[in-house]
UniProtKB/TrEMBL annotation:
Native organism: Agarivorans gilvus
Name under which the protein is recorded: MerR family transcriptional regulator
Gene that encodes the chain: liuR
Keyword flag Plastid: no
Signal sequence extent: none
Transmembrane spans: none
């Protein structure tokens, strides 16, 4: 017999991730979370909790909810035929290329910010000299 872990309530998740219950319901409406319903109560599984964590991480990284859903769809894809697996591999490669380009862009922006910060500090030193 499989021992099912105690499910999480919407309040449990909201408190743990310091977000509103409204946000969690919105993510559910967007198809990112799939809690079980018992009467009018939502019960979230460990899987839902992990997905919520990934949604919030994706948002911090600048992903749109549709991009996050696309990543979930890649992860959840059925692999019933060679064609489906090949298609999934192609989609994964495209997503990886996109992320690598974003990483490169972020690195360039960080270098530009460091340079701007250095120029500002140099200007401040000159302004503070007698």
């Amino acid at each position: 017999m499989v021992n099912n872990p105690t499910p999480y309530t919407i309040s449990d998740l909201a408190k743990e991730f310091t977000i509103s219950t409204r946000s969690i319901r919105f993510y559910e409406d967007q198809g990112l979370l799939h809690p079980k319903r018992v009467a009018s109560k939502r019960l979230y599984s460990k899987h839902d909790k992990l997905r919520l964590k990934l949604v919030l991480r994706g948002k911090r990284l600048g992903f749109s909810l549709s991009e996050i859903k696309e990543l979930f769809d890649l992860y959840d894809a059925k692999m019933n035929s060679s064609q489906e697996v090949l298609s999934l591999i192609d989609n994964i490669k495209l997503k990886k290329l996109s992320l690598l380009q974003q990483l490169e862009d972020i690195q360039v922006v960080l270098m530009e910010l460091k340079s701007a910060e250095r120029r500002c500090n140099d200007a401040l030193k000159k302004l503070n000299q007698p």
